[in-house]
Design brief:
alpha/beta, seven-stranded parallel sheet, six-stranded parallel sheet, 52% helix, binds adenosine-5'-triphosphate, binds magnesium ion
Length: 658
C-alpha cells in the first residue's frame, strides 16, 4: 500500500506546522502513523521526543500497534501516544510542584464534582446545579482561571458562576485534587506563564501529531500551541465534517484559527477515499453537501460500486433488532464473514437493549462498547475511592466514599459533624480521625467505629508502600470488607461471581499497567479510561454509539433508529443543531467498507404510549439510485428470501448433525 502524492507530501513536510484537512477514510490517521515512522526512520527525532495525540484511549492503543508494525526493533521505544487528557495528566505528575499539587493528587470524576457543586449550592435544584457545573466547565475549557472568569463576568449569573468557580477550585486545592478539565487547563497555564517550563517541555516533545483535531476544544488547542511553540513543529489532521463533539465544547473553528495563528501553516487536502464502496461514499457525499460549507470537499473512490444501501422500515425497535440480528447471522453464514466485521451503530445507548436481546436469542456473539460501564460499577468505584484515599490523605471525597464502603455504622450526621470539626482543625478527614481529642466530640459508637477505620487505613497505607499495586488491590478488597459486603449484597452466587469479577478485573488492570507507577498514579490513569475503552472485544459483532465509532472502520455496518425522533435527535432539532446530527450520520455511514444498512421503526413506546415515527429527514437527502428500499424490488427480495431459506436450512442441518 503506497501513499498517494498528497499523503506523501504530508508525510515528508517536517519543518513547520502542517494541517491535513480531509474527509472520512482518506488516510489521515494513516498519514500520522507513516509520519511517525518517517520522523524516526529519517533520524530527525528519536521516538521519545515525539507525541501523538488521539481522541480516545482505544485509538491510542490502535495507533501504538500500527506504529509497532511499521517500526522494527526498539526504535519506537519511548514514543508517546495518548489522549490530550492523559498527556495533561503526565505533565501534571511531573510538574506537580509547579502546579501547586502534591504527589499522589486525585482526579475527581464528574460525580465527585457534582457532589462539590451540590455542597456549594445548598438548596439548589439538580437542574440549576448541573447548569452551574456546565458553566464552570465551559469557563475552564476556555482556559480561564477563576480570577479571569471574575474579571470577564458581565451579568449577575456570570458573577455568580465566577464565584462558585473560585470556591470549587479552592476545594479542589484543599483536597489535593484536580478534575478532568484541569488536566488540560493547568498544563496550559503552566506553559503559558512559565517560560522555563515551556522550554523544557518543548525540548522533551520535539514534534507533535494530533488526530481528529476538529474535536479539540479551546483549552486543548491552546495546549497544542503552547507545546509546539512559535516554530510550530506539528502535524494536525482533521475533518470539519466529522465534528460531533460541539456539545462537549469542541470547537472546529480551531482549524481556521490555526491558519491565523501560524502564517507558515501548510495545508494539505486529501481527496481519495480508500475505505468505502463507491455507493456508500456517494451517499455520504450527497448527505454532507446539505450542510453549509466554505469549501465543499468531494471525495472520490477507486473502489467498486458495491451493493446498494438497504433501507428497512420495521414495525418497532424489537422487530428492527430481530431483522438486524437475522441478517448478520445470514451474511455470516452465507459469505463466511467473521463476526467482528459487523458493527451496529445507534444514536443513544438505550437503543442497545433490544439489539442485545435479539442477538442473544440468535446466539450471535457481540461486544457492547460503553454500555457495561465497568468504571461505573459501584464496587469498582468503591475500590478506586479506597486507593485514592490511601494515596492522597487530603482527598475528602474519596474518604467519604471509602468510609461508607462498606457501611460501618457511621451516619450522615456524624460525617457532617466530622467534616465540620476537621475543617475547623484545618486537616483533612482521613487525618482528623487519627485525633483522639477530635473523635471525643462525636457519639461514642461512631467514634469507636471511626477509630477502627483509622487503624485499618494505617495498616493498608503501610501495605501500599510494600506491595505491588495489583496485590494491594487484592489485599484491600479483603481487608476493607468490600468483598464480604458484596457477598452479603448479592442474592445469587452467580451475581456475586460477576461483581467479584469486576474487582478482579481491576486488579488485573493494575497488573498490566506500566511498572514503577504507584497505586495513586494508577488510580489516576484509570480514571481517564473512558468506558468505551474497557474490555477487549474478540470475534464478536460490535455494538456502539455513533459517537464512539469515530475513526473506526468495518466491512458491514448497520445504523438503526434512523427515524426523525432519534436521528436527528429530537432535542437537537429543538435546539437547532441539525447540522451536527447530519455530521453524526455522515460519520456513521463512512464507517462502512462494503455494505450499509439503515433502518427505522414505524413506532415506539414512550411512557407506555405508542408513538408514530416518521423516517429521518436525512434519508430523503440520500440519492435514491444508491438505495434499495424494502419492497421496492420484489424480484430481488424473492431471490434473497430463497437464498436465506437455503442458508437457514443448512445452518439447522449443521446444528442437528453436530
Ligand atoms: N494510500 C493508500 N492506499 C491504500 N489504502 C489506504 C491508503 N491510505 C489509507 N488507506 C486505507 O484507507 C482506510 C482509511 O484510512 P484512515 O483510517 O487513515 O482514514 P481517515 O482519514 O483517518 O478516516 P476517518 O476520517 O474516518 O478517521 C484504512 O483502511 C487505510 O489503511
Ligand atoms: Mg482517522
Amino acid at each position: 500500500m503506497s501513499l498517494n502524492p498528497q499523503q506523501q507530501a504530508a508525510v515528508s513536510h517536517c519543518e513547520g506546522p502542517l494541517l491535513v484537512l480531509a474527509g472520512a477514510g482518506s488516510g489521515k490517521t494513516r498519514v500520522i502513523v507513516e509520519k511517525i515512522a518517517h520522523l524516526v526512520g529519517s533520524g530527525r527525532y528519536p521516538a521519545k521526543r515525539i507525541a501523538a495525540i488521539t481522541f480516545t484511549n482505544k485509538s491510542a492503543k490502535e495507533m501504538r500497534e500500527r506504529v509497532a508494525k511499521r517500526i522494527r526493533g526498539d526504535a519506537a521505544e519511548g514514543l508517546t501516544v495518548s489522549t490530550f487528557h492523559a498527556l495533561g495528566l503526565r505533565m501534571l505528575q511531573i510538574e506537580h510542584e509547579r502546579a501547586g499539587l502534591r504527589r499522589g493528587f486525585s482526579i475527581f470524576d464528574s460525580d465527585d464534582s457534582t457532589a462539590q457543586f451540590r455542597d456549594l449550592m445548598p438548596g439548589a435544584k439538580p437542574d440549576a446545579i448541573q447548569a452551574m457545573q456546565g458553566l464552570v466547565s465551559r469557563a475552564k475549557n476556555a482556559g480561564l482561571s477563576p480570577e479571569q472568569a471574575r474579571a470577564l463576568a458581565r451579568s449577575t449569573p456570570e458573577h455568580e458562576a465566577a464565584m462558585i468557580y473560585e470556591l470549587y477550585q479552592a476545594r479542589l486545592a484543599a483536597f489535593n485534587a484536580v478534575d478532568f478539565d484541569d488536566l488540560i487547563r493547568l498544563p496550559v497555564q503552566l506553559l503559558e506563564t512559565d517560560a522555563e517550563c515551556a522550554l523544557a517541555w518543548r525540548e522533551r516533545i520535539g514534534y507533535l501529531l494530533v488526530d481528529e483535531c476538529q474535536d479539540s476544544n479551546d483549552a486543548q488547542y491552546r495546549l497544542l500551541k503552547a507545546l509546539a511553540g512559535e516554530k510550530g513543529n506539528f502535524t494536525a489532521v482533521g475533518d470539519d465534517d466529522q465534528s460531533i463533539y460541539a456539545w462537549r465544547g469542541a470547537n472546529p473553528e480551531n482549524l481556521s484559527q490555526m491558519a491565523r495563528d501560524y502564517p507558515a501553516l501548510k495545508v494539505v487536502k486529501l481527496e481519495q477515499n480508500y475505505r468505502c464502496s463507491n455507493r456508500v461514499l456517494r451517499a455520504a457525499n450527497a448527505l454532507i453537501a446539505n450542510n453549509p460549507h466554505e469549501h465543499l470537499k468531494t471525495l472520490w473512490s477507486a473502489n467498486a460500486d458495491g451493493e446498494r444501501i438497504r433501507v428497512w422500515e420495521c414495525r418497532d425497535a424489537a422487530h428492527e433488532a430481530e431483522r438486524v440480528a437475522a441478517e448478520i447471522q445470514f451474511v455470516n453464514a452465507a459469505r463466511k464473514v467473521e463476526w467482528s466485521e459487523f458493527c451496529i451503530l445507534f444514536r443513544s445507548n438505550h437503543q442497545s437493549r433490544a439489539l442485545e436481546k435479539a442477538l442473544q436469542m440468535l446466539r450471535v456473539p457481540y461486544h457492547l462498547s460503553g454500555g457495561t460501564a465497568f468504571l461505573d460499577r459501584g464496587e469498582v468505584k468503591d475500590a478506586l475511592a479506597w486507593l485514592r484515599m490511601l494515596a492522597n490523605p487530603d482527598d475528602d471525597a474519596a474518604f467519604l466514599r471509602a468510609v461508607q464502603a462498606p457501611g460501618r455504622g457511621v451516619g450522615q450526621t456524624t460525617l457532617a459533624k466530622l467534616a465540620e470539626l476537621s475543617r475547623n482543625a484545618g486537616m483533612p478527614m482521613s487525618r482528623a480521625i487519627e485525633s483522639v481529642g477530635l473523635l471525643k466530640q462525636l457519639a461514642p459508637r461512631a467514634a469507636s467505629s471511626l477509630s477502627g477505620f483509622a487503624d485499618l487505613v494505617r495498616g493498608l497505607r503501610a501495605e501500599a508502600v510494600r506491595l505491588p499495586p495489583a496485590e494491594l488491590v487484592r489485599v484491600l478488597n479483603e481487608r476493607s470488607g468490600l468483598l464480604a459486603a458484596l457477598r452479603a449484597q448479592c442474592k445469587t452466587e452467580e451475581m456475586f461471581r460477576i461483581r467479584r469479577g469486576n474487582l478482579d478485573e481491576l486488579a488485573d488492570w493494575f497488573d498490566g499497567a506500566r511498572g514503577g507507577a504507584g497505586p495513586g498514579e494508577l488510580a489516576a490513569s484509570l480514571a481517564l479510561l473512558s468506558h468505551a475503552d474497557k474490555g477487549e472485544p474478540g470475534n464478536q459483532v460490535r455494538l456502539m454509539s455513533l459517537h464512539a465509532a469515530k475513526g473506526l472502520e468495518f466491512r458491514y455496518v448497520f445504523i438503526i433508529g434512523v427515524d426523525d425522533d432519534t436521528l436527528p435527535h429530537e432535542a437537537s432539532v429543538e435546539e437547532g443543531r441539525i447540522d451536527e446530527e447530519r455530521r453524526l450520520l455522515y460519520v456513521g455511514i463512512t464507517r462502512a467498507k462494503e455494505q450499509l444498512w439503515l433502518s427505522y421503526p414505524r413506532e415506539s413506546q414512550r411512557w407506555g404510549e405508542r408513538l408514530k415515527l416518521v423516517p429521518s429527514r436525512f434519508l430523503a437527502e440520500l440519492p435514491a439510485a444508491e438505495l434499495q428500499r424494502d419492497g421496492a424490488d420484489p424480484v430481488a427480495d424473492a431471490a434473497r428470501k430463497k437464498e436465506r431459506a437455503d442458508v437457514g436450512f443448512a445452518a439447522i442441518r449443521a446444528m442437528l448433525e453436530s
